[in-house]
Specification:
Length: about 200
């Protein structure tokens, strides 16, 4: 782990159905000749003392050297994944990234981690939207997430108003090198092709 960083677990969420990718597993699309999941795991091992992958297909991720956990609330989307990671984190914060972000940038992640303080979440604002799946969360917020999940309020955007959130403005982010690449995700075959990515034959 890089010295000087707060005590944070790195979490990759890999529980989606990838319906917009034709059912193919986005985490194993190759970008720059390397599967997204492999690159993310390598980066997180460099940054964090604990690497967690939240997935309901553990057999796919066993070679990444990560702690594999599944949702306690299956079928409830990314919020359930964040909750599951919080329950096994050995550290007071988690950095969450979706498995379809092929260009996560260590400098951008460090910038967000440096803002850790009293807020329960540190969430980037980008292109008139928010990026709750490239964000930092305090593990102490787990009971709030669980309450929402039990009530059937499964969207990240539903839980954020219940937390103390440090929203990082686009103006602040634009001063950080690599931010646009770090926040890029690929949800469709067209988006994957646009950045030179592809699926190997066995993933097609």
């Amino acid at each position: 782990m890089t010295s000087g960083l707060p005590s944070v677990a790195g979490v990759m969420l890999a529980g989606g159905r990838a319906s917009r990718m034709g059912g193919r597993d986005k985490a194993f699309a190759a970008v720059g000749g390397e599967p997204i999941a492999v690159r993310t795991a390598r980066l997180f091992r460099e940054l964090f003392p604990q690497l967690i992958v939240v997935t309901n297909r553990a057999e796919r991720f066993r070679d990444l050297g990560a702690e594999l956990v599944s949702d306690r609330f299956p079928g409830c989307g990314p919020l359930a994944g964040v909750h599951a990671a919080m329950l096994v984190s050995r550290h007071p914060h988690v950095f969450i990234a979706a498995c379809d972000m092929p260009r996560l940038d260590a400098g951008v992640i460090r910038f967000l981690l440096a803002r850790i303080g009293r807020a329960q979440a540190i969430v980037p604002c980008w292109r008139d939207d928010i990026e709750p799946l490239h964000a930092v969360y305090a593990v102490s917020a787990a009971p709030v997430l669980e309450e929402c999940l039990r009530a059937g309020r499964n969207a990240m955007r539903e839980v954020l108003p219940l937390l103390e959130v440090d929203y990082v403005s686009q103006a602040e982010l634009e001063a950080v090198a690599g931010v646009e690449s770090s926040l890029t995700n690929v949800n469709t075959p067209e988006e994957l092709a646009a950045i030179g990515g592809r699926f190997d034959a066995q993933e097609s």
